[in-house]
Amino acid sequence: MATIEKRIRNGETSYRARYRTPAGVQRSKVFTRKIDAERFLTTVEAAKLTGAFIDPALSKATVREWAHQWLDGQAHVKPTTYARYEGIVRKHLDPVWGHVPLGKVTHADVQAWITAVSKSHSPSSVRKMHRVLSLVLDMAVKDGRLVRNVAKGVNLPRPIKHEHRYLTHAQVDALADAIAHPTDVSKHVPLADRQRDTYRLIVLFLAYTGLRWGEMAALRVGRLQFARRRAVIIESVTPVAGQGLVWGTPKTHQRREVPIPRFLLADLEAHVHGKTSDQLVFTGVRGGEVLRVSTFSAALATAAQAIGVPGLHPHELRHTAASLAIAAGADVKVVQQMLGHASATMTMDTYGHLFEDRLDEISDAMDAAREANRYRLASAAQLGVSEPNSPGSEDRR
């Protein structure tokens, strides 16, 4: 049972409120006024009845202690994701929040921190920092150390939407030719002719399949199904700081099949001729080793500059594949499957504006279907043939 003990020391009166936690552990807190002690105990007893009680001793753990315990529980995420989490904890959470007890973190403090880091970091980086802190506090709530997550509901900087660049068919061909046959060799990365042919094929392959770089770099010969014109994507490889190359599943952990255009088949078959099924399709200069994106990017940047598309990044070939597929008539679900997005919503969020460009095609197709239907009905009437109304036909005169 909760009690209040009156104490007088050195002529000053105080009131110690004693209570037991739901676990039976005795706790106490000292107040200068009896009314405050009474109000505190009323709050404690109400919290115990509703299941909202938090033992103050549990919330004394520091953010640093809890953040590192949270990190220890992230072994299930991809190595690249873990490396990003660890970097944020080490560089941004520990220096600012490390010494602060969980129970002392306030919503206002988090908002002030977000405002401060927004002055020196991009909106995207700030949002990632906030997410990690919020995940750490979320676990503290679930563990019964906090009543609520005070990081939720803070005002975050709006993410900057970068305009994607989409190459046309002609630009893709020009880029592939430029990387294989540079007009000014002095400005290009020195490469053997065979490697330049490989780079040419990579440009075309990425621009027409939409693979992520890590998926392409991990693609093995046995996963190219030439008869079905498919590439089976079940693996990805990524460089991680301090760990070297890390192999794993694709970004969404899902196996998928990606269509290969017919015009690429002959070049692909010639490229992998003589390789075993478990060898990599595309390799580095020395052969057999994983092709690093940094190595390819240098050659790509020079070729892109030569055709008037400066600063082109390999990932923009993935965006190009999406735009070319949409322009060719692919619907959102097909594009989602091709790119390996977790949901059609993600595909629409990224490329929805490209589908809007095809709205006229829909109305034109409906116009054509309507006129064809009217012509068919008119022809039937002239021949004296009566037809039942079919879905989409009209019965207007």
Automatic annotation (TrEMBL):
Domain spans labelled Tyr recombinase: 162-364
Entry annotated with the keyword DNA-binding: yes
Record domain Core-binding (CB): where: 61-141
Superkingdom per UniProt: Bacteria
InterPro entries: CB, DNA_brk_join_enz, Integrase-like_cat_sf, Integrase_catalytic, Integrase_recombinase_N, Integrase_SAM-like_N, Tyrosine_recombinase_XerCD
Swiss-Prot/TrEMBL keywords: DNA integration, DNA recombination, DNA-binding
One BP term from GO: DNA recombination
Single Gene Ontology MF annotation: DNA binding
Protein family membership: Belongs to the 'phage' integrase family.
Protein name from the UniProt record: Site-specific integrase
Native source species: Aeromicrobium phoceense
